[in-house]
């Protein structure tokens, strides 16, 4: 049996702690409280269940064992994957919510607008290039469709009815 690297485990523990703290904070301030309650329980429960569940593996690391059991449709593995997907989704929702709040803060909003003014000419240039390439592809597609229509013998609707 092999285990995951120490750096990954430290990152994983820190991420679970952040998810736990964010769940507690959002539950206390009553923002997304219905979704925050599972985000409080799952970071505590999932590692323990995963540890007990993956202890029975004979070789490989815990992730590969969980993946193989998920592919075999083992119900514990499926529930663990659903739990990990939930806390990952929760993490992205919290980050998005914090970014929205941060953007509404006037000094940050001002800096973002200044940055956008610098980026906008490059963005417009890139967008125009992409649009021109897309128009070329569309035109080639239309030409191919015309060639295919000419070469394939399609029957008219009046021929099919007779």
Write a compact overview of the structure shown.
The protein has six helices and no strands.
Spell out the key features of this protein.
6 helices, 0% strand, mainly alpha
What topology emerges from the helices and strands here?
Elements lengths: L5 H23 L4 H22 L7 H10 L3 H30 L1 H46 L5 H5 L1
Task: Give an account of the 3D structure.
- With 162 residues, the chain is an all-alpha fold.
- Helix content is 84%, strand content 0%.
- It has six helices and no strands.
- Helix 1 (6-28) crosses helix 4 (75-104).
- The longest helix has 46 residues, at 106-151.
- The model has no long low-confidence stretch (mean pLDDT 84).
Order of helices and strands: HHHHHH
* Distance between the amino and carboxyl termini: 73 Å
Q: Nearest-angstrom radius of gyration?
A: 27 Å
Structural class: mainly alpha
What is the residue-averaged pLDDT?
84
Biggest sheet, open or closed, and with what strands and sense? none
Number of helices: 6
Shape: flat
* Helix fraction bin: over 70%
Total strands = 0
Beta-strand percent range: under 5%
Low-pLDDT stretches:
none
């Amino acid at each position: 049996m092999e285990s995951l690297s120490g750096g990954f485990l430290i990152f994983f523990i820190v991420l679970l702690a952040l998810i736990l703290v964010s769940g507690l904070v959002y539950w206390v301030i009553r923002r997304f409280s219905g979704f925050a309650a599972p985000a409080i329980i799952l970071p505590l429960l999932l590692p323990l269940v995963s540890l007990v569940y993956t202890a029975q593996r004979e070789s490989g690391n815990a992730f590969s064992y969980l993946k193989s059991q998920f592919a075999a449709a083992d119900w514990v593995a499926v529930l663990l994957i659903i739990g990990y997907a939930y806390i990952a989704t929760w993490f992205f929702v919290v980050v998005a919510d914090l970014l929205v709040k941060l953007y509404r803060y006037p000094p940050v909003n001002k800096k973002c607008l200044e940055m956008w003014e610098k980026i906008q000419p490059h963005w417009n240039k890139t967008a125009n290039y992409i649009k021109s390439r897309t128009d070329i592809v569309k035109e080639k597609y239309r030409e191919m469709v015309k060639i295919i229509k000419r070469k394939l013998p399609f029957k008219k609707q009046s021929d099919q009815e007779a």
